[in-house]
Design goal:
- The complex is a heterodimer.
- Chain A is mainly α.
- Chain A has a single domain, classed as Orthogonal Bundle (MetI-like fold), CATH 1.10.3720.10.
- Chain A is built from 11 helices and no strands.
- In chain A, α2 (19-51) packs across α4 (88-124) and α4 runs parallel beside α11.
- Chain A is elongated, with a radius of gyration of 25 Å.
- In chain A, 43% of the residues are buried.
- The model of chain A is unreliable at 1-28 (pLDDT under 50).
- In chain B, strands 6-7-8-3-9-10-12-11 form an 8-stranded mixed β-sheet, with helices on both faces.
- The two termini of chain B are 40 Å apart.
- Chain B is α/β, with parallel strands linked by helices.
- Mean pLDDT of chain B is 82; it is low at 1-19, 342-351, 603-616 and 665-681.
- The chains are: A mainly alpha, B alpha/beta.
- Chains A and B meet through α1, α8 and α9 of A and β4, α2, α13, β18 and α15 of B.
């Protein structure tokens, strides 16, 4: 080997350049750990919701044991018992299902409708775009809580109403994001080429544009899912959606909030359940958005 | 090289050269790899102080890697495997990171590709030059004056005012000058210029090259100029190194480009149209295949694409050997390559075709962006089967005009008639049958192909929507020179040339009457460009499609076009048959374009700062930059239309006899085989 290179190492890299980029790469690793942990938490709740309390819970969440009223967390009741002596752990586990039915369905509905609206508004443009966006503005300014109360008064409280109200709240948000992403794509020459070759409008939207805004739709869906969990819990807390006595988390928090000083566990357990799911989904959405942005 | 060398004295410190100090740059047996795959295979060359070495080659041949390594930089994932880089006796690769940084700030100036991207948009240009000065150790108090001095040195006008501007307020050429000014900080001993003029107009390109040539003598620095533009390298460089697959295959004085000894050099030259070459007089020959990616190969790296390859070439790799006392060639059979003559002449269209009916008639077309007029009262007609070459610098309104014709621009004044009936300015209002008749090939195939669709889908949709009848996707792929194996790939898996072929095939499959090609080859390598131009020429000859072909490259335009239209700041200054426009007499603006693209010095006066067309413009648009301008006339009255020869029109006050005939008339435009080898004389 010659003296210049073979002196000590044989091969070497010129180190001074690119150290920042290398540091940036290593910083990426802990984020992945966070995303995996968040995924595990969310997946655990999905399993709980699918399996149901009958498989997992130590006892019936509706079973009242007056002697165990306000029992502290212990070997008998792991998370304690509430005012009727019902097991808090069983109720938290049973409360997962209503949340995980309402939130994903509401999100799916909002994403589908919002994507159709956003895609067609941007793709068709002109007066249609203007009209659609103004209608969405009108929907946005109408508070969802009032809408939910109104619906509950008119139709009675039901999960369907809850789903529809949450979806209606999210449609404008999804539609705006998808529209913005579609407008960016519309300015690209491949769309102009499609217009030049007389590609039909639906084909332009579905074949050309939709695959290219897929990433936005995906990110939008995960972000909205976290919000939907929170919204479902909030509306249940206000007494909308679930019938009285439901173990749903928001309803449980609402039911037990008066016992905060006497039996905080009755309140904390469902509250932490909400928080864990919302935060986990939000972190997953974050990780997904970063992945999409990087590509 | 892999063979061990005699151990020489170690360089102890950054400046502690032992023995006689060697001036200039010496690169010896430099080998580098990315991700374990070798990309440079023992590159050796010297550059004396005050000398310009040009490095040419296709994309991916290692030009940029080499250029960056010269400044001691390697991208993450890269490794230097061996060899040395010495500048004035200092071994760059032996420096520790700290010393390297200091050395870089003092001894090396590097100008990266795309000047605009290397300037900070939030800092004034003066502040950026000052930052570079302060980094190199100039005291803060003195840096302001030094910065102005540097800006003056790169011939920027009114530097006191200009230094307070932000990069986006400067033209592309001015930005490039600022980047060069930053590179000059500390009087570097080595200047590395990576594609310094790519993306600039011919005339601006020429100004930058003149500047580089001047600085070289002023600085007495070793200059390495990396480019894929052979013409440019031939114009300014003292010596040329041709890189192929990470190896120098030919190194010598610029005569390398006149009488290439390596078949690769010859092939590169044959693939670049020269000014005056026309598709009717001599065809381009593209290099078959693609440059190999990183990695080791057995035998000569060029053998798979070489027309002269023998069994020897495939078996053993040739060494870089002296051919004569001033040229090195890495070839088993040097000088066997045919000289860079154009390909065989195909049966051309009859010399004087009978006038075809007018296909598209443009009357008084005007398009505005806000208060800026991009296209002003343009009159143009395109006959059936005619290839119109539209040339002009960036900002001249070429693209706006093209988009107005295909219906992709906002509405404005003016009338369009297509095949005798009125054509609505908005695409959406045109009948589908008319829309299918006017297609467009876009500049960048990266954005004109849907990234989420496979090639089969892209071509299939075009066949369906453009009513291409019985043609199958496979047949179409064959016609545009693509194998059936690419049909199931997505665009990002294809090379730039392949993508543009797909875009052309898609646009032409329905046999449209008119195809607008907006700089379809400006993003491609020379060797790839030749293939794409050939495809366009063949499609034109076989199907009689009319083209409006836009380019800022006069040689490319001249190769393809029957008629050339010269646009400047929104208006047409000259139009006529290609031969007449290239042969002259020229409009002074056209003359400056021709001069710039042949490398003959004809500096234009300082460009006027406005750069925008205002409605208040009266007189000739070119007057502020025209060497021939007659004060009090050219800038106050609109110039009259002259017709120096039948069908050749230009707007100028000068009589045809007074018009510039510069440079020498381009001889080979006439389709006579005897003249073909002259190129641009």
């Amino acid at each position: 080997m010659n003296s210049g290179v073979g002196g000590h190492t044989g091969t070497k890299t010129v180190a001074a350049v690119g150290t920042e980029r290398v540091a940036g790469l290593t910083r990426g690793a802990p984020r992945d750990v966070v995303a995996v942990a968040a995924g595990a938490v969310a997946a655990a709740w999905v399993v709980v919701a699918l399996a149901g309390w009958r498989v997992l819970a130590p006892r019936d969440p509706a079973l009242q044991t007056p002697s165990d009223r306000f029992a502290r967390p212990g070997p008998e009741h792991w998370l304690g018992a509430d005012q009727f002596g019902r097991d808090v752990l069983a109720r938290v586990l049973a409360g997962a299902r209503p949340v995980l039915v309402v939130a994903p369905l509401a999100t799916a509905l909002a994403v589908i409708v919002g994507t159709v609206i956003g895609l067609s508004a941007a793709g068709l443009g002109g007066w249609f775009d203007g009209l659609v966006m103004r209608v969405l503005d009108a929907v946005t300014v109408f508070p969802s809580i009032i809408a939910a109360t109104l619906f509950a008064a008119l139709v009675g409280r039901s999960r369907l109403v809850l789903i529809l109200v949450i979806a209606a709240t999210f449609v404008p948000i999804v539609a705006r994001s998808v529209r913005a992403a579609t407008l960016v794509e519309c300015a690209k020459p491949y769309v102009e080429a499609a217009r030049l070759r007389t590609e039909p409008t639906w084909s332009l939207l579905v074949r050309e544009l939709l695959p290219n805004v897929r990433a936005t739709v995906l990110v939008e869906a995960t972000s909205r899912l976290g919000d939907a969990v929170f919204a479902a819990a909030t509306l249940s807390f206000l007494g909308l959606g679930e019938p009285p006595g439901s173990p749903e988390w928001g309803a449980s928090v609402s039911e037990n909030r008066v016992w905060l000083t006497i039996a905080p566990w009755t309140l904390l357990a469902p509250a932490l359940a909400i928080a864990s799911l919302v935060v986990a989904v939000a972190l997953l959405a974050d990780a997904l958005r970063r992945r999409v942005d990087a590509s | 090289m892999t063979e061990p060398r005699v151990t020489g004295p170690r360089v102890e410190g950054p400046l502690a050269g032992t023995g006689p100090r060697v001036e200039g740059l010496r690169v010896e047996g430099l080998r580098a790899a990315y991700g374990g795959e070798p990309v440079l295979h023992g590159v050796s060359f010297d550059v004396e102080p005050g000398e310009i070495l040009g490095l040419v080659g296709e994309s991916g041949c290692g030009k940029s890697t080499l250029g960056y390594l010269l400044a001691g930089e390697i991208a993450p994932g890269g490794q230097v495997l061996g060899g040395r880089i010495e500048l004035d006796g200092v071994d760059v690769l032996e420096l520790d990171p700290r010393a390297l940084r200091g050395w870089r700030s003092r001894e090396v100036g590097i100008v990266h590709q795309e000047a605009a991207a290397s300037l900070d948009p939030t800092m004034t240009v003066g502040a950026q030059v000052r930052a570079a000065l302060i980094n190199s150790g100039v005291p803060r108090s003195a840096s302001g004056e030094s910065a102005l001095g540097l800006l003056r040195r790169v011939h920027l006008p009114d530097v006191e005012i200009l230094a307070r501007r932000y990069p986006h307020q400067l033209s592309g050429g001015q930005q490039q000058r600022v980047v060069i000014a930053c590179a000059l900080v500390g009087n570097p001993r080595l200047l590395v210029l990576d594609e310094p003029t790519t993306g600039l107009d011919a005339s601006v390109q020429h100004e930058i090259l003149t500047l580089i040539a001047e600085l070289r003598t002023e600085l007495a620095a070793a200059v390495v100029l990396i480019s894929h533009d052979l013409g440019l390298v031939g114009q300014v460089c003292d010596r040329v190194g041709v890189l192929y697959a990470g190896r120098l295959v030919e190194l010598g004085r610029t005569e390398v480009l006149g009488t290439p000894a390596h078949p690769y050099t010859a092939a590169l030259l044959a693939s670049q149209p020269r000014l005056g070459q026309s598709r009717t007089s001599g065809r381009l020959t593209a290099i078959p295949g693609q440059a190999p990616g990183p990695g080791a190969t057995a035998g000569c790296a060029f053998a798979p694409r070489c027309p002269l390859a023998t069994a020897t070439c495939h078996a053993t790799e040739p060494t870089l050997d002296p051919l004569d006392h001033r040229r090195l060639v890495r070839c088993h059979f040097p000088l066997d390559a045919p000289p860079p003559t154009p390909g065989p002449v195909r049966p051309a269209a009859p010399a004087q075709p009978r006038p075809e009916p007018v296909l598209l008639d443009v009357r008084g077309l005007t398009r505005r962006y806000g208060r800026t007029i991009a296209v002003d009262q343009v009159e143009l007609n395109i006959r059936r089967g005619e290839v119109i070459g539209l040339v002009g610098e960036s900002g001249s309104g070429k693209t706006t005009l093209a988009r107005a014709l295909v219906g992709l621009s906002a509405a404005g004044d003016g009338a369009l008639r297509f095949q005798g009936s009125e054509l609505h300015p908005r695409l959406g209002r045109r009948a589908p049958a008319v829309r299918r008749q006017i297609q467009m090939v876009f500049q960048s195939p990266d954005t004109s192909l849907n990234p989420r669709q496979r090639i089969r889908r892209i071509l299939g949709r075009a066949l369906r929507t453009l009513r291409a009848g019985q043609v199958t996707v496979e047949e179409l792929a064959g016609r545009i020179g693509l194998g059936a194996d690419v049909l199931d790939s997505r665009p990002d898996q294809l090379s730039g040339g392949q993508k543009q072929r797909v875009a052309i095939g898609r646009g032409l499959v329905g046999e449209p009457a008119l195809v607008v090609c907006d700089e379809p080859v400006s993003a491609l390598d020379v060797s790839v460009q030749a293939g794409v131009l050939e495809l366009l020429a063949t499609e034109r000859d076989e199907r009689g499609t009319a083209y409006l072909f836009i380019s800022h490259d006069l040689a490319v335009i001249g190769y393809l076009a029957d008629r050339i239209v010269v646009m400047y700041r929104g208006a047409i200054l000259e139009d006529g048959p290609s031969a007449a426009v290239l042969a002259g007499p020229h409009h002074p603006y056209t003359a400056s374009l021709i001069a710039a693209s042949t490398g003959q010095p004809r500096p234009r006066r300082a460009r006027n700062q406005a750069g925008k067309v205002n409605t208040s413009d009266i007189g000739c648009r070119f007057a502020p930059s025209c060497d021939y301008a007659i004060p009090g006339m050219c800038d106050t009255e609109p110039p009259p239309r002259r017709e120096p020869s039948p069908g050749h029109h230009l707007d100028c006050f000068l009589n045809p006899g007074e018009l510039p005939l510069w440079p020498q008339p381009i001889a080979s435009v006439t389709p006579s085989p005897a003249n073909q080898n002259q190129g641009a004389s």
